[in-house]
Design goal:
alpha/beta, Rossmann fold, about 35% helix, globular
Length: about 220
Amino acid sequence: MIKTKNIQKYYSNKFIKTYVLKGIDLEINEGEFVTVMGPSGAGKSTLLHILGMLDTASGGEYYWHDSPVHRLSERKRTTLHQHNIGFIFQAYHLIDDLNVYENLDTPLMYKKVKPPERKTMIEAMLERFNLTAKQKLYPHQLSGGEQQMVGIARALIINPKLLLADEPTGNLNSAQGKEVMELLKKLNEQGMTIIQVTHDDVKARYGKRIIHLLDGLIDKEE
């Protein structure tokens, strides 16, 4: 499903290149649940953003089902992302001037889902995450936990082939966190490919494979 060869990411000024990723070779098979771990600054979130086509690598090759993502135009990468990838952000990334309902509607509009079908899908997702009573509220009117639940619902509403989760339970209480991890486990059992970033050893074990990053390189796998 995913294959990378020597993926690098660096930021440069006139005098020096600062590397975040130094050469990542990675293969993710369809249906896997993979955890990425490592200390702060190891490059975990950067790698997730590149795999999610929200950022581009400075060098190397990225293949999505044999399609060379690194050679695609920004427009084609965006379309590929909108139709195939759900992303749960650590900092929510909700649209501030849209209410809960409208935030869930946005990815469906990008995917050109017809209005009646969108309404059915949104109502089902609101019910699934106990957000029906909150649907007309705006992000600033929600708690951190509620905002994260909206973010998770938004990532799942397109039924993505790949779900990327950057510390998906970081802003949730322990009960909510366990509920989310059990949901991810169930989605994976139903066939969804999932890559999560986490610092939590217990949540990391939900992944069937754990990749450890250190200083922009893969340090080990287990």
